[in-house]
Amino acid sequence: MTDLAIxxxxxxxxxxxxxxxxxxQRPQTGRRGPSxxxxxxxxxxxxxxxxxxxxxxxxxxxxxxxxxRDGTLISEGDFVGLENFADVLTSPGFWAAARFTLIFxxxxxxxxxxxxxxxxxxLRTRIPGGRAFKVLxxxxxxxxxxxTSTSWNWLVATPQSPLPILGELLGLxxxxxxxxxxxxxxxxxxxxxxxxxxxxxxxxxxxxxxxDENVYEAGRVDGANRRQLFTQLTLPLISRSTYISxxxxxxxxxxxxxxxxxxxxxxPVNTTTSLVVLSYRTTFAQYQTGPGTAIALxxxxxxxxxxxxxxxxxxxxxxx
Length: 320
Prior knowledge:
Radius of gyration: 25 Å
Shape: globular
């Protein structure tokens, strides 16, 4: 049987249609208006929503006002319009930070997702000490980032650290992970994957637990192999959770200040400086609140665009 025929049967199995069935979907009923219970729930949630909106709206509005002025931390300064945005967008340091932020985000999102999904699928099988293994895998996410970054600094920061000593014993020479620009970037990205994969693992575990095993049995009956089961059943069935986790992890990575600042401080020679670190330095080290808030607002706009794009993908997902 060809892969095309097997793929069609697997898709029919995903829709819950027998191999000899017609594959017709049940007619959808018309939409009903909101019920009294729904309206009551909305009214109960409304005060909290308004409070959260006010708590988040004020900083955004104040930051927007600061971004069009040439003020400092103690003075609002004069109105300069979009001059701060123009200065930021023409600065080589901004684009260098944007490039590292992009790399850091891509590695953080897809690296942690790949590791988390692989471990989630592994934990679905019966392995010795599975429960203890699950608890241990959550430690990188549960332990405060200050403790984790301090441990990684002890492992790689100085020539007397364990990993540089091990590299020298293996004949690799004296490897300074946080002093070399390339190695520092790799170390920061790997560190982000290390502290983020437990979150992805929990998301994917919950999504995989909701998949009916009968769907896989139907796929096996139709002749699908493991690769086809994974690509044509598992991935489509968990796609909603996958897109949601990508949105959340993108926000976590772009706004991640402590991971980078505690591990490298943005160095060496600004190689690991992300946009959020650059915004912090501009505002609190150089006392230029206008360009600093302009960088933050550009980050916010980018995150909104990425979130909207991924959310549209969620709405397009069809697992029926």
